[in-house]
Amino acid sequence: xxxxxxxxxxxxxxxxxxxxxxxxxxxxxxxxxxxxxxxxxxxxxxxxxxxxxxxxxxxxxxxxxxxxxxxxxxxxxxxxxxxxxxxxxxxxxxxxxxxxxxxxxxxxxxxxxxxxxxxxxxxxxxxx
Length: 128
Description:
By secondary structure, the protein is an all-alpha fold. It has 6 helices and no strands.
């Protein structure tokens, strides 16, 4: 669960700062691409590699292994991501983060679905 949470936090930060995130990519491919796009230093690149390996183990291994440094690794990689962004992108990520907007859209869509089904149930009840 810790590895998934760390990977989700990294994904949200990347999307908030305008970086492409391909859901079809493996964690290793995503880490490789982000390392190239961000020109990460050795410390941040190693942290990103640890995050990708932890996510792969959490997804595919029977025993995911220890997650001792993942919080610090996320902090290092997100810090590198923030410093590579322009001032405008950083402000947009703080004030109107796309990852939060997407979550609001999903919640709104679910609420509309709920109202639709309540309306259908009301109509069926009237007919009966």
